[in-house]
Amino acid sequence: MEGTVLKIEKFSAFFGENQVLKEVSLSIPQNRITAIMGPSGCGKTTLIRCINRMHELIPDARVSGKIFLDHEDIYATDPIIVRRQIGMVFQKPNPFPMMSIYDNVIAGYNLNGIRLAKDEKDRIVEGSLRKAALWEEVKEALYRRGTFLSGGQQQRLCIARALAMGPAVLLLDEPTSALDPKATSYIEELIVQLKDTVSIILVTHNMAQAARVSDFAAFVYLGELVEFGPSGSMFTAPKDKRTEAYLTGKFG
Amino acid sequence: MKEPSIRRRILYDKLFKIIVVLITFCSILPMFFILFFITSKGISVISWRFLTQLPKPVGEIGGGILNAIIGTLMLVGIGMAFSVPVGILAGIFLSEGRKGKLASLTRLCVETLQGVPSIVIGIIAYIWLVVSMGSFSALSGGVALGLMMLPVIITATEQTLKLIPGSLKEASLALGVSYSRTILKVILPAGMSGIVTGILLSIARVAGETAPLLFTAFGSPFMNFNVLKPINSLPLMIFNYATSPYPEWHTLAWGASFILIILVLGLNLFTKIVTKRWKVQF
Asked: Which of A189, B117, B147, B230 makes a 20 to 30 Å CA pair with A245?
């Protein structure tokens, strides 16, 4: 029995005159990993940035269509609330450089001015770091700066930071593109473990990665959703010719 | 390639290095002469009394510069009280809203303000505050100094914040942190070292200003803590004493110069430490 956590309906996005997304409709299944693939510039990053309304940082961006998180219209909710329910991890690890590892994890609460008791904070920090498979490596160094960690560890720290807020959906924007193969495989393992806690949308241009970790896959090309379905069938028998061409490396 | 040409090039190379070092040395020479001269003239009058007493009337021996030290601190403090918040906020505005008419107008004004001669700023403060309030005052002097600090702080803040990677802002916003809190709790702390450096440099810039204080703070032989009354400052005291006909006042002026130079030098060193210690690695 599969539930839908996020429903995207006829969603279009524009930067100025330029239409980046064309009437995308998509249902993201709960507690599954959905990979969004496509060549550079196809709009996949724009799509997930629209899901937590980060695209609004760009002055002339506008959108049409609807996105529902548990039947609640994201564009009728304050972006601040939306972003607490939909966490995001970026391409390049971006821990807060002036904060310790501990403060980085709890940053979502501290920066929002949410006061918590010390033991509550400790619990959230340990829990989030454990979920991000980083606890064992940093438990002795919680009060050192987050930037002392390696790139892969920094990225897991960023995942822990996002998880600490207890989001319903986690958006991963090419989370391993700045990492070496070993760190990448760690993160991939981690992503698979995480799906019990949170629904994951993974943007990647790495088809092998999408095949390894995802349950569902969406192929976006030139702003259009070309194909969406269970990863298994999409990678073995794509329905659309464009998907097939991309998957077999004819372009991308 | 022939042998002599290589030898000649090596020779040129050496010559070039020697000239660069020599000219660099020449450029720092005046600084050392100034320091040496002021130290040798001024250090003889420096004593605990000199630092803790008030000036004495002509004819009496001794007297100190306590009121001028306090006055300088008060003037700089008043200047900071309005130029630091305004400067940081304007710097944030410029670094955030890079385009737009208001931003380019602000930038133009900042550049202009930077170029306004200090005496003109003194006249402005005179007209604004001294004339309207009917008396020379520490407040008007502080405002004059603050106006001079303002462009330095704005520029330092803008430049520092511009260098902070956008990913940091995204990280904070993606956690559902509001824009204002993102600026105050993430962007500003990350740029703190640069901003504090700018503030300290602006203090160093105005601590020795005499011209804008001539008809604002005016100077006073008494100890004064009232911001609405005239107040003494180190550069004003130096100006008054050095232009007086009394030799013992000349010595006091040297002593005050020495203290002023030590203050500014100390500030610069402190700035270096701040820049190093608070530097945030991205």
From this structure: A189
User: From the CA of A136, how many Å to the nearest CA of chain B?
Assistant: 24
Residue A200 Cα distances to A3, A134, A188, A192, A234, angstroms: 14, 19, 12, 9, 18
Radius of gyration of chain B (CA): 24
| Partner-chain residue, chosen from B170, B190, B282, that has the shortest CB–CB distance to A90 | B170
* A117 within some domain: no
Domain containing residue A195: 4-95+168-247
Crossing angle of helices B66-96 and B138-163, in 10° steps, is: 40
Alpha carbon distance A9, A24 (integer Å): 7
Task: Give the tokens for residue A41.
Answer: 């510039």
- The pTM is what? 0.84
* Total count of domains within chain A: 1
| Any domain includes A238 | yes
Q: Taking every pair of C-alpha atoms in chain B, what is the biggest distance, in angstroms? A: 82
Assess if residue A145 is contained within a domain: no
- A23 contact partners, CB below 8 Å, separation of at least 6: A10, A11, A12, A65, A224
Report the length, in residues, of chain B: 282
Residues in A closer than 8 angstroms to B177, CB to CB, are 80, 108, 111-112
- Is A54 a member of any domain? yes
Q: With residue B248 as reference, give the H or E element that holds it.
A: helix B247-277
pLDDT, tens digit (0-9, with 9 covering 90-100), for A11-39: 999 998 899 999 999 999 999 999 999 88
Q: How far does A101 lie from chain B, in Å, by closest CA?
A: 14
Residue A83 and residue B182: Cβ atoms within 8 Å?
no
Determine the residue among B168, B175, B178 to mutate to test chain A binding: the one whose Cβ has the most chain A Cβ atoms within 10 Å: B175
Q: Which pLDDT tens digit goes with each residue over B137-171?
A: 999 999 999 999 999 999 999 999 999 998 999 99
Q: Do A97 and B181 touch (CB under 8 A)?
A: no
